[in-house]
Amino acid sequence: MKLLEGKKAxxxxxxxxxxxxxGIARTMHEHGAExxxxxxxxxxxxxxxxxxxxxxxxxxxxxDVSSDEEIASVFEKAGRExxxxxxxxxxxxxxxxxxxxxxxHQTSREGFRxxxxxxxxxxxxxxxxxxxLMQNGGSMMTLTYYASEKxxxxxxxxxxxxxxxxxxxxxxxxxxxxxxxxxxxxxxxxVRTLSAAGVSGFKxxxxxxxxxxxxxxxxxxxxxxxxxxxxxxxxxxKITGEVIFVDSGYxxxxxxxxxxx
Length: 261
Ligand code: NAD
What we know:
By secondary structure, the chain is of the alpha/beta class.
């Protein structure tokens, strides 16, 4: 069954074929969606363009989300070339490496500003810019992480950003509901990506995750893609403002114990 036939998706956040956004894009493509991509920097173009071509996407445009001008420009081009969109995928986060290790109380003003600007404000800015292209309603989604709720070593300012991102998701959902636009966040367990590699101690956490999680399995980008496709589809037409975990059940635990103990 193809869930997304006739729908157009604009995907922000593919850096390479390990990106969660790529898992989402590929699954949406399999479900019949027409895809368009935006990438962050010139140096990423040579990785993103071939991926985009492999799912028949014509629209592949640069947009650094810290720039209002670049956001305006990418949506102006999208308006011209795509006419409308039904799905907006925000899979973007950034914090300086020096902010993702050590003492949280050492978080700098600039490190805080940058992390919250790129990882949170960008959702508001992209959502606003997408509105003229979503006159018939649609589905927006972002990617969050459980560190928003419970302390995860070294996530530091990114954890604070994820709390703000989840709140932003709820406020946007309340704001845009009457326009038939749904806004949700997907919260995956650890996935080995470029961004994750920036978090000190991530590898160890990743290695041990499956021994704690109730389902005993790590998360793939395809697992996230499946849930994203569902959220983008009409089957999720009454779901908005939610944080949906794709984490093999990890978040339900209070004290994680390895299975074999
Ligand atoms: P990734 O590195 O593949 O993707 C992050 C993307 O953010 C990249 O494409 C990067 O270019 C983009 N980005 C950073 N700064 C930008 C800017 N100024 N303008 C435009 N784009 C910018 O890593 P990922 O793990 O796929 O991350 C995607 C999302 O998933 C992030 O929000 C991340 O926090 C979230 N997430 C990741 C994990 C994990 O374990 N990997 C778990 C939960 C949530």
